[in-house]
Each structure stands twice: as structure tokens, then as C-alpha cells.
Records
---
Amino acid sequence: MVIYPNEIENLIEKFNKLPGIGRKTSEKFVFYLLKQKPEFLNEFANSILNLQKNLNFCQICNNFSGIQNLCEICQDTSRNKSQLCIVEDIQDLAVIESTKEYQGLYHVLGGQINPLEGITPEKLNIQKLIDRVKKEKFSEIILALNPDIQGEATSFYLIKLFKPLKIKFTRLARGLPMGSDLEYTDETTLTNALKGRQEII
Amino acid sequence: MVIYPNEIENLIEKFNKLPGIGRKTSEKFVFYLLKQKPEFLNEFANSILNLQKNLNFCQICNNFSGIQNLCEICQDTSRNKSQLCIVEDIQDLAVIESTKEYQGLYHVLGGQINPLEGITPEKLNIQKLIDRVKKEKFSEIILALNPDIQGEATSFYLIKLFKPLKIKFTRLARGLPMGSDLEYTDETTLTNALKGRQEII
């Protein structure tokens, strides 16, 4: 392995910790930054320093809440307070919001149950969710978790937990994504698309 | 597009400027950093701030020289001073050094000639190279530029420039990379491998 001066190695090491970034890509980033003006490096460093400052999380749903205690969605009186959408993280919330299709409330779990990585239900915002579901009268709870093994496990855990409450539980539809090609679609997706087929006439 | 709070958008924007990094990957980086301890963010920011400090470039070859005026290679009296290897950037120098195969000196151009991107010969360390080649008596100049269009153009420019000096000019061998598969090798590489075939018995 090629070793560079300390200043360079230190930063390579940091970039190397980012998800999906290996040593070679880290080197590419550092050599790119070496060619930039000092002002850009200052701004970059400041953006990192400021990231966690002034960033609070909503006491109800765990979304970003800026400098306030509650997020914009929980404060918005025009939202449908009888629907609750459970998401894994804030990015999933943001992407659902961007569709403008959903008008209810959210609850951010902060992860998926994954015992192999030590993420047990206690480590997620599930207690808060239980308290909330017991207190509020939701007519529907939408599970908007990823369609993968951990997402399924988390959904299963939540369904079991809330079964006694007899609330309507739904999950996002499984089927063919737009722009896909039947020929290259995996069997599970195709099975789901067949099972969930919709009447058109 | 999903819009996040300012603190997050600012950093997404910075990561987005790194080579090969799009908006989605930038978001992934920022949300990863959000989950890290403040100490890690401080160290990351400091590594960026310190990157360009205390980092000088060798007055002869343009390699890193730490806090000194000349780099370790130019200062090393045991190196073969009759060979000069011309490379595009310091990363290429480092990777050649890591082979331990070459014992001569280097000259870092700082880029490739690329008129479309406004990189003309004047923007590279070519004047310094001309002065150096006229002063020192090199017995061989090795062109270790990338085997692509810009690399070829740069080599061609340098060969034309130094032709009157009648120095031995070589370039890195073209041929099959280790671990490759003849069946999937492109025609140019295979043509080069045939042209440069080596006698083994």
C-alpha cells in the first residue's frame, strides 16, 4: 500500500470510514481537495462542525425539528391525525413527503430490528410508539419499512405487538417498479405483483 | 428532490462536489455522520483544515516535500540521477515507488494536456521540466503517462519538444494486465500485446 504524508493519511482515513468508500476512493477525494482553494476546505470543515449543532429531533415522531421541540409535520394542524406512517429513518420520511401523496403523521423508528448487529427493539423508538398508539386514536397504521429481511422482521414484530389493539394495519404495495422489465424481474417481485394484481376495467 | 434542514443541505452540497459522488451518496454520507460522536466530526473537520497546511511541494520535481524544500527522493543521494520518470500526478509517482522497481528521479507534471478542459502545456510543470532536462544530463527519460487519449497527446507533445536533445525516450510497456482474460480483452490492448511480444526461449 502507498503511504502518503500524515496530513493526507489522516484525511484518507476519515473518508475511508464513510459507508461504501474504500481506500482508493478516499485517496481520490483527498487529492481532489488538495487542488481546491483554502476557502472551500474551510467551508467544508465548517459544514461538518455545524452538522449536529442546532439540529433537534421532534419529541413526538423523531423527525428533525430544527431549533423547536416539535417538527413541522407534528405542528401542522391540517394533517390527518388519524393516520400514522411508521418509517425506518428520516430519509424515508423525506422521500414519502416528496410524493405529496400522504397527509397523515409519521413515526421514525431510527433503524430496523437486526439482532445480528445488536439492534434489538429496545434500541429503536418503539416504546415511544407504543405510548403514542395507546394515547392517540389512529384509524390506520401504515408500515413503510424496506421490503427486505430486516424490514419484514420489524414489521412482523410491530404487527404482533399491536394486534390486540385491533387497528387497521397496512403496508406499502409490493409489485413491479416503474420502468422495470418483466424479463429481468426476480421471482419474489413477480409473485408479489401477481398476488396483488389490480382490476382495471 | 427532497430538501433537508440547512445544516444537512450545506454538507450534502459539499460532499456532492467530490469526484464521482452524486446527491444520493452525499445524503448517505451526511446521515452516517449525523449518527457519529461529535469527536469524530471534530477530527474529520480538523483533518480537512490541516490538509493544505505544512504541505510543501518539491522545488525540483513537484512531489510532496513535507516542511522542506526538496522531497525525499530528490534528496536521496543513492538514487540513479541519470534516469527521469515523467508522471501526471503524485499518486502515479507513489504507485510506481511502491513497486520498488525504479531507482531514478521523477518529474510531476500536475496533469495532462487537455485543450478541451483548458489545460494547455503552460498550465503544467513543463517549463521547469525543460530547464531541468537542459541542465541535467539524463541518459533516459521514461514517460509514465496514462494509456489514454490525453496521456498519448501529452507524450506526443513532450517527445516533439525534446527530440532535438537526442535523449533516449521510453514509455511503459503496453500489453495484457495480470489476471485478465484474452477473450474479453479489447482490440487495442491485444494489438499492443502482439506488437510488443517478448521472446521467452
---
Amino acid sequence: MPHGEAIASLIDHTLLRTEYTPADVDRVCAEALEHGFATVCVNPIYVPQIVERLESSPVKAASVVGFTLGAEFTAIKVEQARRLIEAGVEEMDMLLPVGLLRAGDYRAVFEDIAQVVKACHGQGVILKVILETGLLSLEEKIAGCLIAVKAGADYVKTCTGFAIGEATAEDIMLMRRIVGPAVGVKAAGGVRSWEKARLMVSAGASRIGATQGVVIVQQSVHEAGSDPTQS
Amino acid sequence: MPHGEAIASLIDHTLLRTEYTPADVDRVCAEALEHGFATVCVNPIYVPQIVERLESSPVKAASVVGFTLGAEFTAIKVEQARRLIEAGVEEMDMLLPVGLLRAGDYRAVFEDIAQVVKACHGQGVILKVILETGLLSLEEKIAGCLIAVKAGADYVKTCTGFAIGEATAEDIMLMRRIVGPAVGVKAAGGVRSWEKARLMVSAGASRIGATQGVVIVQQSVHEAGSDPTQS
């Protein structure tokens, strides 16, 4: 498999900034179909549009819950998940309540995630839980991973890309070590080049969230050498 | 009325960053009670806490809807509003769907706001509509104001503070000119000093959103001269 396709299949092609229009969404769907990205990830209002554009392709529709602050009522996160699934989403990324994690209220964090997991897994939908690693201490990162796995998350993920901090190899290695081989690790936040994407995969990431997916694939095609999926 | 209290009564004392903990929320409630801010504005998970802390005081509990990206399903925004009101919120700030405004889908923007207005006004709750002015052209700012007023918003507001751009005197004057005297104008985003707050009020703002409310009040007390409510 060429590096281009190998790396593309790991990328969530992501378009979440508030200023994006339906025309931008069409563009990223076309890019995703051309390059074979894993998913297109957009805000809820654009989900019907991507579901239509990606129909009968292997590219999945993805969206977000409790985004970008993670501090919604759990009941709202569950309702967001339900409506996204109804609209055709197959994968979603939720932000856990970072302030409660930092305060050590692990029970509330667990309940928040577990309720959304319940809404997803009954429908075969994959749930990724964002830690917002840039705001957490080492202990909080570890606790966040353990709680997310215990609550049934399919992936743990580094950052929203909207707060301080970005994905680092150190954090990816830590997260992979904690969640083990059966749970996914998604590197997101500041992954804008093939070099960075390859570093993330080498460190243990099984998915990349990026707005620069096309650049990453193009750079990977131009480079000889290691296949990131083999490292 | 001293400048300190006069300006304090115009300030939404705001704590929305994801990393804040219940201890931070207690601190801002104490500050609000001490200085007499208009509201304390926090994320939904902290609303029960502020409602309890602010009980039987003139300081109102406030929160946010469709925040920080504005691109939730309208039905979710309505459900967020309903649950916030149920929890005791008396004012809320919602972000309109910026991408749809930029795309000229005015009908969708109107419907989005009007549905949340409907949830609020039946309960005597004030709704402020954020334009995210830093991302808009002059034409889009004007359209956003007109649509928000037509849909029944109680205030129009400049920025979330989480995207590019901040409140400017030029934008506040524009917004005040469009919405007229009967609708509020809230300056938020980058208002961190008494000098800036006074400039906003002079330009026509009737409310200030700030995390630095205590600093603003302290600076105003130390300064002789103009009363912002008289300018």
C-alpha cells in the first residue's frame, strides 16, 4: 500500500472552525473521497450534508459532542449523540468535563462518558474521548485515560485543537501505554505535516485528526522511506 | 453612584474556559457578590453551583448555548436553553451559526435564533446573541444584527472570546446604530481594562462580558473623571 493511502486511511479530515460554510464542507468531502480519509469530521449542522456527499463511499461521517468546552450537561451530550446518530454519524469525538477531571471528581467524569458511550454502542457508533492534554498534569492525563477506558471509550484523544497545547509523542506514548492495544489513540492538535503525523503513529497513534490532511498525504507521497503503519 | 458600582452593574463576570474547576466558580461568585456584577456566566455544568451561591442576591445566574462554535442543531440549542432555565439561569448567551450567516442562509440563522428566543421569553429569560464579529464582514455584521433583532434577541454581542477578534468601538457603534435603543449591545472579547470597558460603554455598549471584571472595577475606582453610564 503506498504511503499516501496508508496514512490517509488513518486521518479524520476535520473542519470544525465556526466560520466554515457549506461550500467549505463540500470541498473537504471531495478531498476525503479523493484521498480515502477515514472520516470527515464537521460540526452538527453540516452532518446531513456530509452524510449525503459520502454516501456509498468508505469514508465515514463524523462529528463532535460537548465541543469545544466539554462542560455541557451530560443529558445534553447524550441528546447530541442521539441526534448525530439519527442524522447518520458513525464516529464522534466528545470532550470530557476537563474542570471536573482536574478537580478529581472522577465519578462525574466517568458518568459523563459512560452515558454517551451507552448512546453510541447500542448503534454501533465509535466514540472517541478527548482529554485536552494541554491543560492536564501527568496525573490528570493518566486518570483521564483510565476513566475513559473504564467507561467504554473506543479511543482516547489528545486535544480539541481549540485550547492551549497540541499532540506530543510523549503524550501519545503515555496514552498508548495506559489504554493498551485494544483501545484506539487519536493524535489531534497541531498535526499539520507528514513528519508530525509519522511521529504520532510511531509513538502509538492509530488515528490522526487534522485539517491539513491533504498536505500530510502529499508530503508522504513525496517522501521515500518508512511506512508509518509498520513502525 | 461611584464608578466602581456603576461599571460593575454592567459586567457579566465570566468564567468559561474548560480548565476551570468548582473552586474557581466559588471564587467568581464571591467576587460577584462583593462587587455587584450583573451576572456570573459559567458553563452549564456549573450552573447549579452558581444558582446556589447567588441565591437571594441581585446577581443573576447566566450561561451559554451553542458555545463556542454555534454550529449545533437548533433543536439541541433549544434543549440546552430549556435545561439551563430549569436549572435557574436568568440570562444566556448563544452563538448564531456563523458559517450559515457567512453563506447568506439568513432563513436558517433566523430560525435558529427564533427557536431559542421562544424557549427563553416564555420564562422571562434574557437572550443575548453573539455574532462573532471578528469573523464577519461589515455586511455580515449588519445582517447578523438585523436577523437577531427580528428574531427577538434581547441583546446582540460581539465575540465569544474564543475565536479571532475582539470587541471594538467601531463594531459597538455599528451594532448600536442598527439595533436602536430598545435592544442591548454587549461588548465581549478582549475587554480587560477600565479604559477599554469605558470605551465600549461610550460607543454604546449596555453590557460588558469580561473575565477581568475585578480589575476593571478596581481601575475605575482609582480613576477620577467620567461616569461611563453618563457618556
